[in-house]
Amino acid sequence: MAQGATIQAPGLSTFLKSLKTTPVDPSVEHLISLLKRRQIRNSRPCAIATTALLLRVVGEFKGRDASKLVERIRQVGRRLTSAQPREVVVGNIVRRALGLVREVVDEHADGQTPNGSEPSQTPAHSQHDSLHRPTLASSMSTFSPLKHASAEPMHMSVISENMSDSGELVRRPPLLTSHTSYAPTSAAPLVNSLFGLFSQPADTPSNMSTPTGQMSPTSKTTLTAINLERLADLSKNQKELDLKGEVMEGIRELQDELETSDKQIAEVALEHIHANEIILTHTASTTVQKFLLYAARKRKFTVVHCETYPHDHTATHGILLTGKKRESNPDEDGDDDKWKPLTDAGIQVYVIPDSHVFAIMSRVNKVILATHTVLANGGLVAAAGAHMIAKAAKEHQTPVVVLSGVYKLSPVYPFDIDELIEHGDAGSVVPYDDGEFVDKVDVENPLYDYVPADLVDLYITNLGGHAPSYLYRIVADHYRSEDITL
Amino acid sequence: MSEPPATEAVQAPATETQAPAINAPALANGDAESTAKKVSPAELKKLAKAEKQARRAQAKASDLAPKPQSGPSKDGQKQQRDSKQTPKEDKSKPLPIRRRPSNPNVPVVKEMEKKPKKETKQTGLFFGHLYSQPKQQSMNGASKDVHPAILALGLQYSSYAICGSTARMVAMMLAFKAVISDYQTPPGTSLARHLTSHHLSPQIEFLKSCRPLSISMGNAIRYLKDIIIKIDPSTPENEAKRGLLEEIDIFIRERVTAADKLIRDLAATKIEPGDVVLTYAASSIVERAIIQAHNAGIPFSVIVVDSKPLFEGKQLARKLANAGISVRYYLITGSSHAVKDATKVLLGAHAMMSNGRLYSRVGTALVSMLASAHSLPVIVLCQSVKFTEKVALDSIVGNEVAPSEELLSELERRDLLPLKSLLPTSKNKEKAGGEDEKADTADVLKWIEDSKNLHHLQVLYDVTPAHYINMVITEYGSLPPSSVPVVHRLSTNA
To answer: Which DSSP category does B465 fall into?
Structure first.
């Protein structure tokens, strides 16, 4: 299964190479093993690998059945996320892909309904639902925070259960969406939907009445079966729909987005950095470096860089010396050669140990943080040390700006922060040759920090700048509520 | 190359004089010294290397810009002393000018100070005012008046073999004992007049050139000078010297040994069963308090948070673990996780400022900030000898810069070696051709030095705002940080 890994030093580049020649299923296995072994880590490589894999999954998919495609992507996604649940980006990309499929189906449905099957409107209740449901559902999810809130608890299962078939929580969202979907059929949508809460079980007793605990695992399958049935009906209706092609097109766009997001973020740099500013940042992040580099073309400023020891300090020093992240070096030499280290752009860069943050903060004008994942509540998970930096900035009233591609924005809601934090090799804190020490002392090396939303002043994504409180809306724009639980 | 044996030779007598002298310093320094001795060949080599580099850089700098180099370094010391008066000026100026000491003749110096800005990379952000003189790493250039014990001590300071405010102060006082007992008043002067100004001050100057004096050292020196001046000129020299040595012993006993004991006992009562005590870096007094509480049979655990590059907390964690306490060890990047599990924070101090702020190892402010955000009690253990009438608002005006090459350990440099081929080609040309695979870890430093705009910056202390501190435990009892000036007056006037 992982032949690729044995031949070359495994990583993102070998995976992408092997992806071209290996069939899909071994590739999935390959990526899973790479994720598990952390040979692909950090958001961007994970995102790139996942999109590439999904592109292939969709490409290899046989049949024209949208529901089957959704199920297939979902199944792959579930396995990938359970391989490395803390790389939330993998789940994000899978959800985006699922959203693409649904969007293609919806668009087609919208195009179909007016000219085509008139009779389906009145008699086939279920079919009518399925036609309109996705659009309505999405509009509900974006406009009604209440609905969103009710959907949120189950995000937890994403993490805590490692995507396994967690019982009731998984089942709740489809139920809710189907409620809302019934609403517009009547004249008074709101009232009806509220009544629907109670009347619903009577209508469709078999699937909907017992959504919670007492249902055995089969309930899930029946539910999704119904769901899929509708999609299946749909795809039967529209034979001419080039589902695969359009979804692949969408995934390629997603790849483009991954590639260009840094650039798009960088392009607003001049709106945020003024002359002679002192900017504090941390870790080795290509996004941040490009952002600063873009600003450096026009303005002179000073960068204070925390080295993030022991997690990423080698990469940090590397990026400052060479302008490149070491891990991405072998493969990306060609396309990215243009960008130089900040120092070559005439920017004064000061490397400081992480302990100096508070001492320096009183003179810093702005803190720019890279991130691992952004969560729906406006908080973020970033390299260890980010929390104390953000907190020190808050104490000094220094604005904190977080740069993040939209692909890092996750619908996950952080109820249990500790679940999101990965702990790394204690040997990088105290080398194992110090056996006596390692033996007696509990050495810990958390790799990530959770930074609560109130410590962040601004998010800059490839869509522009946002307040942390607005992120839920972008989440709603990018993910279908049906897909929040994979 | 001739330095290593010499330094070793001098180191030996110093440790001998110190070790049996008194318990307190032995406790504080014993470990550091033994480790220093253990790794001494390697460390000496490193030292020599760093030294060579420093010399090279210095030579280069002085070649290219002799005048400006000598200018700032000459009045750098003066500036450091009266930095209290100049900070405002320093701060308000834009970055490039900040390095320049506040000279009245602005127009003349303005031209010159552009050059060092380009040549020496040591502009150090807004810490420029602290880069007054290169750190003394060897005995080269030391005045012949300097006593061998002081020479050894100075090298131990600069290599951090003796580290920590109290330990440094005690070691200095003990070295002064050797200096005083070897001292002979030249004919025609009296001990009270001559000793301080002519004999002690070169010693102090040398120590200062090795590492800036700590607050406690300043206090001790002031105390010593006070005593010397009070000596009746008519006292016979032997008697006066004996009296002085006795006074030094009393000082150490009262202000350090006894104070430590009081603080230790008081602080140990603050540790309750089930506590998780968090501490940052290493403080001898915190260590003693924790061990005292442990010996009293209180079940609790300790979290040690540590940071680069000194890793002082490692020693502390090791000692506590050896004493049978359950210890967890975090680096500062993980401090927000560490604070979550803690119930109490015990901190050591380098000094307590008169405005209630704590001047301590850099990173302390972060830990106390996080702790107070979690509503944990933050307790500072500090002998009153470390109290100072100085005030500080931030960590920038008064601080101590550490050599930037210390930022990267040997291991980290090795990790960076593979980057060689990726360095910007413009700078790399001659290197890539030459000694290709035989890359030396010193090269990494050279890259950083060569890279014009890349600086490594390192200071040793930071200032913790008073409102993060709940309690200061001294030998006078437990007080809020606002009472520091009162205690300082008490302890100096008494």
So the answer is: -
Six token digits for residue A116: 């085509």
Q: Where are the beta strands (DSSP E) in A343-434?
A: 348-352, 366-369, 373-374, 380-383, 400-403
Q: Is A340 on the interface with B (CB under 8 A)?
A: yes
Q: In chain B, which among 66-105 make CB contacts under 8 A with chain A?
A: 94-95
Query: Residues of A with CB below 8 A from B95's CB?
Result: 276, 302
How far is residue A457's CA from residue A401's CA, in Å, rounded to a whole number?
A: 6
Chain A residues in contact with B332 by the CB 8 A cut-off are 353-355, 385, 388
Q: Which residue type sits at B403?
A: P
Backbone angles phi, psi at A305, to 5 degrees: -115, 120
The pTM of the full predicted model, rounded to 2 decimals, is: 0.75
Distance CA(A15)–CA(A231), nearest Å, equals 33
Instruction: Measure CA of the first residue to CA of the last residue in chain B; give whole Å.
Output: 51
Q: How far is CA B27 from CA B31, B119, B257, B291, B324, in A?
A: 8, 44, 11, 13, 18
The C-alpha atoms of residue B289 and residue A484 are separated, in whole angstroms, by 52
CA distance A303 to A100: 40
- Provide the terminal-to-terminal Cα distance of chain A, rounded to the nearest Å: 25
Rg (CA), chain B: 23
Please give the structure tokens belonging to residue B37. Answer: 């001795």
Count of alpha carbons within 13 Å of A69, Cβ hemisphere only? 34
- Specify the 3-state DSSP secondary structure of B379: strand
**What's the gap in Å between the CA of A401 and the closest CA on chain B?**
19
Contact criterion met (CB < 8 Å) for A449 and B329:
no
Q: Do B317 and A441 touch (CB under 8 A)?
A: yes
CA proximity to A320, closest of A294, A283, A357: A283
ipTM over 0.90: no
Q: C-alpha dihedral over B234, B237, B240, B246, to 10 degrees?
A: -170
pLDDT in single tens digits along all 486 residues of chain A: 444 434 456 888 888 888 888 888 899 999 999 999 888 888 889 999 999 999 999 988 887 788 889 999 999 999 999 998 888 999 999 999 999 999 888 888 776 654 444 443 333 343 344 333 333 333 333 333 333 333 334 444 344 444 344 334 433 444 444 444 443 443 444 444 444 445 444 444 444 434 444 444 444 444 555 566 566 555 555 555 688 888 999 999 999 999 999 999 999 999 999 999 999 999 888 899 999 999 999 999 999 999 888 877 888 888 888 776 654 444 444 444 456 788 888 889 999 999 999 999 999 999 999 999 999 999 999 999 999 999 999 999 999 999 999 999 999 888 888 888 888 888 888 888 888 898 899 999 999 999 999 999 999 999 999 999 999 999 988 998 888 887
Give the minimum alpha-carbon distance from B336 to chain A in angstroms, rounded to a whole number: 6
Amino acid present at A355: S
From chain B, pick out residues whose CB is under 8 angstroms from the CB of A310.
331, 333
* Chain-chain contact of B125 with A350 (C-beta, under 8 angstroms): yes
Minimal C-alpha gap between A465 and chain B (Å): 27
Whether cis (ω within 30° of 0) applies to the bond prior to B309 is yes
Residues A407/A261, Cβ–Cβ less than 8 Å: yes
Q: Tell me, yes or no, if B309 comes closer than 8 A to chain A by beta carbon.
A: yes
Shortest Cα distance from B303 to chain A (angstroms)? 9
Tokens of A194: 């509220």
In chain B, residues with a C-beta closer than 8 Å to the C-beta of A353 are 307-309, 332, 362, 407, 458
User: Containing H/E element for A222?
Assistant: helix A218-237
Most A CBs within 10 A among B333, B336, B339, B340, hence the mutation to make, goes to B333
Tell me which chain B residues have a C-beta less than 8 angstroms from the C-beta of A370: none
CB neighbours of A353 closer than 8 A, spacing ≥ 6? A306, A307, A309, B307, B308, B309, B332, B362, B407, B458
